[in-house]
Every structure is written in structure tokens, then in C-alpha cells.
Amino acid sequence: MSDFDDLTERMRAFTRARDWEQFHDPKSLILALVGEVGELAELFQWLPADSAATLALEDPLRTRAAEELSDVLLYLVRLADVLEIDLPQAAVAKLASSEARFRPEHFHGTAPVKD
Amino acid sequence: MSDFDDLTERMRAFTRARDWEQFHDPKSLILALVGEVGELAELFQWLPADSAATLALEDPLRTRAAEELSDVLLYLVRLADVLEIDLPQAAVAKLASSEARFRPEHFHGTAPVKD
Amino acid sequence: MSDFDDLTERMRAFTRARDWEQFHDPKSLILALVGEVGELAELFQWLPADSAATLALEDPLRTRAAEELSDVLLYLVRLADVLEIDLPQAAVAKLASSEARFRPEHFHGTAPVKD
Amino acid sequence: MSDFDDLTERMRAFTRARDWEQFHDPKSLILALVGEVGELAELFQWLPADSAATLALEDPLRTRAAEELSDVLLYLVRLADVLEIDLPQAAVAKLASSEARFRPEHFHGTAPVKD
User: How many whole angstroms separate alpha carbon D92 and alpha carbon A78?
Assistant: First the structure.
């Protein structure tokens, strides 16, 4: 069984054991995801941009970052389950689309600009 | 190779082929993640809460939701790679912690309150 | 002096008194804003969509919501100051643009679709 | 009339003229706010942290940043109206609370750590 199938099953069982399916409509799950992304942002907000990665290799930040990344992932997996989306398959397809859209020869060393 | 290892490798190769490692410090990647979560939120914001899941089973919403969930996942996987965090392992540990914290007998049918 | 000028001045003085200008680059302030939006989302995430507004008229949610909305506003005002943007003026201009774009006769009762 | 009262009235009239009150429950408005914060994040995500403020003084970024800050503010004002919260008053109270909590003599040059 893949990592994603395993996490999906575990989150589904966790939810059912607490009768929490009633709370897991898509909009509520996206708000929960936003809450966890917010906690992740708070961990890094005041760190110097160029030393943040190094600082995060050491505790206590390392453990806290792992927890917040995990919370984001768990709600993402749960949302994909509710929406009946095969997330790893969709992600591989999306990345293939980005590979075609951002040709290395045109975007080498240049970040794409959002407008 | 697991789903996560595969996605991590693909995102790493995608980034290197474009010389984009220079942009992928943690704070920038979190902002990119926020951008994708925002696009996901926009897909659902005005839908009725109780029919959103059903509406998302049909196109065009189904395809768009899969794309945005994928973008969130891809930046999350990339951020975990930069931070040298084993994301599926961390997520299993976090879920085990939540299972112990939110005992089914105390939280059955009751959403935990954030304060 | 307008509300915004007053808040801008207060946030500027608050920041200077703590020598925190060094932390207030735009990316860091956006991450701080994201953190506060996340806390706001957590307050509402599991509430029923159709009774959330009524529930938020009573404490403890009323006080907590006012605090989180305030935190979002304070970082927004601070970010506008750092970017030298006249926020109330810009907001009036943006709303005028939306009034022209979403003609009442075309969008009556219909939420605009993001694609 | 204050800036906030003016914006609140304009957003209320804008909403009524389109019969959009039906979409403006708190959870939906928070998702809309998240969408706009996401667009703001996308404008800055790949800019160097230490030159972002300077780059944002010039167009096209200046105009785009003003638009996104405005969108965030407009949804924030609308949400405060729906929740019957006096936002400028609440923000002044919250800032007073932060002034007491983060004494300049203890936090001079030191960012508060979130845990």
C-alpha cells in the first residue's frame, strides 16, 4: 500500500472513530488547512530569509516544522479523500503539465511572474 | 519507491533543471504554498457548504480542485525536502499524537475547540 | 486624522519602540498576516455554515473573532505603510473597479466564478 | 464619517445591489479573504527578501500590490460588518493589549517567538 493510501485510510478511521465526518465538508476542511498553514507561517515569519533553512535543521524549530507540515498534509489527504481525488496521481499529472509549460530553456534561473 | 519519495525526486529534478533552488528558501516556499491554498479557497468560497462535495464530483470543478490540491502538495513536498523532513513518517507520528490527545470517548461527535 | 492614519501611526510607533523595523520586510509581514488569517479560520472552521454568524454574536467567539480580525488589520496596515500605499484610497479605487466589472444587471444573485 | 464607516457602507451597498448577502456567511468570507491573501503572497513569493520593499515601489508591482491589499481589506471590512464588530475600535484595543504584553524593555530588537 502506498504512503498516500495508508495516510488516507488512517485519517478516515480517525475521523470515523470520533464521528467527525459531519464536520468534514470541503469548505470546513479548507479552513482547517488554512489554520495549519498559518501555524507553519508563524514558525518562520521573523527568521532571516537566508538562514531559515539552516535554523530549521535544529530543534526546537525542526520538530515544530515537522508537526505543522504534517498537519497540513493530513488535512490535504483528508480533503482529497472527501473529494474522491487520487492525489499522488493528480500531482504527477500537474507536475508534468508544469514541466511542459515552464521549459527549462526559457525559465533557466528566472522565476515565473504571476500577474 | 514510495509516492512521497517519487514526488520529492521529481520536484527536485524539476527545480534543478530550471536552476530554481535559489528561490526555494523556506519563507518563499511557504508563500508559494499560501498562493496555492488561496486558489483552492477561491474554487469553493461561494458554494453552498452542504452541496460543495457533490458539486466537486463533476467537471469543471473536479479537474480544477485536483489541480489546486496538487499544487499545494507539490510545494509541501518541496518544502519538506528543503527542510530535510521525512514527511510521511512525520505525518504518521503526528496522527498518532492526535489519536492519543483526542480520545474517541471524549470527543465523539464533538469538534475540538481552538482558543 | 482618519482611522487608517491613526492605526498606521500607532503601528509605526509600536514597531519603532521595539526596534522591530528590521523584521518588517514585505514577505515577513505577509507571513505574519497569513498566521493571523489562520487563527481566524480556526475559530470558524467547524461551525455550521448557516449558524456561524449568529454564534459569533455571543462570547467567547465574539471577543476572539474581534481579536483575530484586529490582528489581520494591524498587519495589513503595517504592510501598506512599508509599501507606501494609501490603503483607504486604494480600496475605494478597487471597489469602483469591481462595481464596473460586476454589473448588477449581469450578476444579480450570481456569484462570480473564478477559473 | 470615518474611512472604515465609509468602506463598510460601500461594501454593504455593493453587496445588496447584486443580492450577494446570501453568499456572505463568515466561513465563505474567510475563504474569500484567504483567496486574496494568496494572490498577495504570489506577488512577492520569489522576490529577494531584502529588496522586495524597494521593488514594490515601482510599477507594475506597486499597482498590483495596492490592488491585492485592497481586496484583503474589503473582505475584512465586509466580514467585520457581518459579525457586527467595530473593527477600528477593536484594532486599537488589540494594539493596546500588545503594547502591554510586549514591553519594549524586554523585546527590544527581539522578535516574539511563537510556540
Answer: 39
pLDDT digits (tens, 9 = 90+) for C44-90: 999 999 999 999 999 999 999 999 999 999 999 999 999 999 999 99
Q: What is the pLDDT of residue D35?
A: 98
**Global pTM?**
0.97
Residue D89 grid cell? 475600535
The three three-digit cell numbers of residue C58, written as one number: 455571543
Residues in chain A within 8 Å Cβ distance of C45: 28, 31-32, 35
Distance of residue B52 Cα from the nearest chain D Cα, in angstroms? 12
Residue A108 distance to chain C (closest CA, Å):
24
Count Cα neighbours of D84 within 13 Å in the Cβ-side half-sphere: 10
Q: Read off the C-alpha cell for D34.
A: 484567504
Residue A33 lies in a domain: yes
b/e for D89-102, b at 16 or more Cβ within 10 A? ebbbebbeebeeeb
Domain count, chain A: 1
Contacting C residues, span 25-54, partner chain B, CB-CB under 8 Å: 27-28, 30-31, 34, 39, 42-43, 45-46, 48-50
Range of the domain at C100: 3-104
From chain B, the residues in CB contact with D21 under 8 A are: none
DSSP letters spanning A2-60: -HHHHHHHHHHHHHHHTT-GGG--HHHHHHHHHHHHHHHHHHHTTS-TTTHHHHTTSTT
Question: How does A15-42 read in b/e, with b if 16+ C-beta sit within 10 Å?
Answer: beebebeebbbbbbbbbbbbbbbbbbbb
Question: Looking at the domain assignment, is residue B63 inside a domain?
Answer: yes
Q: Which three cell numbers stand for residue D54?
A: 524597494
Residue C113 in domain: no
Give the Cα separation of C68 and D87 in Å (integer): 10
